[in-house]
């Protein structure tokens, strides 16, 4: 068992010793690891840290606003917000293959991040939210596990091209320790205990070609689903958001017929996915209450013009993966 205040004091001391008066840059993704790393490093060296937040246009509803508010406003961290939506959408136009999409998103991400950090000429360090399981995973790289079959896009590969020294203050921590640390550093628990979100974001939750129009529809459907999951309270005191490991909506570029008032509609479909798992290598679909699913479906269809049908994914992993791409 560890003592959090002591741990923070030690970590802060060690970061200060390591970087001295140098400047540090960090790619903030909105995810738990990079957020906790940012909060910790900021605690240690304040304005010597500059974060670069690349918005690829494939984030969840209001995510960019939330990141800027939490880090910029609440914590007083220097954050450069880069809205690269058009650049990403441009490169993704016409591309339907899931791995090709991942590669493009990963490549553009590096490109945008590099261009931004190139402007910060005085930076000597690149900080990353690498955690202990990432260290182990990359040590066993040659092994092709279910986890590495998809090219997982994280900010790896940046240091070589940027000529920066690496600062990885979370390298020895497990995920639950990172979360505890985040809360102790003042990050909101809702943020720190959020479900994982893939690096390529909605890019792999929009099947086939990615379009901004699809991303906008999906963001709204997904937000409704998550809000309804959070708004439940089961007998054990937990919400369905807490009872599931990952839950999200998937955009299907398929149109089907519906009725709305006196009229006929011909609109897109979203699938809801909610799973329970320990390690994400295998997973069960969550047996969400039918009333909850009904509420989500009604709200999505009533509130999101452009969607007229909602389906629920009842596939386990294996054989299905958690994401649809
Ligand atoms: P699958 O779909 O392979 O997902 O069952 C297992 C876990 O990995 C996440 N995932 C990704 N994370 N980049 C990421 O950062 C990716 O390309 C990627 N693909 C899948 C997925 O969200 C789930 O938590």
Low-confidence stretches: 143-153
Order of helices and strands: HEHEHEHHEHHEHHHHEEEHE
Give the % helix: 40-55%
Overall structural class, as computed from helix and strand content, comes to: alpha/beta
Number of helices: 12
**What gap, in angstroms, lies between the N and C termini?**
39 Å
| SS elements, strand count | 9
Describe this protein's structure.
Pathway: Purine metabolism; GMP biosynthesis; GMP from XMP (L-Gln route): step 1/1. This is GMP synthase [glutamine-hydrolyzing]. With 325 residues, the chain is α/β, with parallel strands linked by helices. The protein folds into 2 domains: 4-192, 3-Layer(aba) Sandwich (Rossmann fold), CATH 3.40.50.620; 205-312, GMP Synthetase, Chain A, domain 3 (2-Layer Sandwich), CATH 3.30.300.10. Helix content is 42%, strand content 20%. The protein has 12 helices and 9 strands. It has helices spanning 4-19, 32-45, 63-74, 85-92, 98-119, 132-139, 158-162, 175-184, 189-192, 212-230, 240-243, 290-303, and strands at residues 23-28, 49-55, 78-83, 123-127, 165-167, 246-260, 263-276, 284-285, 307-312. The strands form 2 sheets. The protein has a 5-stranded parallel sheet with strand order 3-2-1-4-5, with helices on both faces. Strands 6, 7, 8 and 9 form a 4-stranded mixed sheet that branches. Strand 6 and strand 7 (263-276) form a beta hairpin. Helix 1 (4-19) packs across helix 2 (32-45). The longest helix has 22 residues, at 98-119. It is globular, with a radius of gyration of 20 Å. The two termini are 39 Å apart. Mean pLDDT is 93; it is low at 143-153. The structure holds xanthosine-5'-monophosphate. Xanthosine-5'-monophosphate is lined by residues 102, 150, 152-154, 196, 198-200, 246, 280, 317, 321-323.
């Amino acid at each position: 068992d560890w003592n959090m205040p002591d741990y923070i004091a030690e970590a802060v001391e060690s970061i200060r010793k390591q970087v001295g008066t140098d400047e540090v840059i960090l790619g903030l993704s909105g995810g738990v690891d990079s957020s906790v790393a940012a909060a910790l490093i900021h605690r240690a060296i304040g304005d010597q840290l500059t974060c670069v937040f690349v918005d690829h246009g494939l984030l969840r509803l209001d995510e960019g606003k939330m990141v800027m508010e939490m880090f910029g406003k609440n914590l007083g961290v220097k954050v450069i917000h880069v809205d690269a939506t058009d650049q990403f959408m441009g490169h993704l136009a016409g591309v339907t293959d899931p791995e090709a999409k991942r590669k493009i998103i990963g490549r553009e991400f590096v490109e945008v991040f590099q261009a931004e950090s190139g402007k910060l000429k005085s930076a000597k360090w690149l900080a990353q939210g690498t955690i202990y399981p990432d260290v182990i995973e990359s040590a066993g790289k040659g092994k092709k596990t279910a986890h590495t079959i998809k090219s997982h896009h994280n900010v790896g590969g940046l240091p070589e091209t940027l000529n920066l020294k690496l600062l990885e203050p979370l390298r020895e921590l497990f995920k639950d320790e990172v979360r505890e640390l985040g809360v102790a550093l003042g990050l909101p628990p809702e943020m720190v205990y959020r479900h994982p979100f893939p690096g390529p974001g909605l890019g792999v939750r929009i099947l086939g070609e990615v379009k901004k129009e699809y991303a906008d529809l999906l963001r709204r459907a997904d937000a409704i689903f998550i809000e309804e999951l959070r708004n439940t309270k089961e007998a054990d005191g937990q919400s369905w958001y807490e009872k599931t490991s990952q839950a999200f909506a998937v955009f299907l570029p398929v149109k089907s017929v519906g009725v709305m008032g006196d009229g006929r509609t011909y609109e897109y479909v979203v699938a809801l996915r909610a799973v329970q798992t320990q390690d994400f290598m295998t997973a069960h679909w969550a047996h969400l209450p039918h009333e909850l699913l009904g509420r989500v479906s009604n709200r999505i269809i009533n509130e999101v013009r452009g969607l007229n049908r909602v389906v629920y994914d009842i596939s386990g992993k294996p054989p299905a993966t958690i994401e649809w791409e």
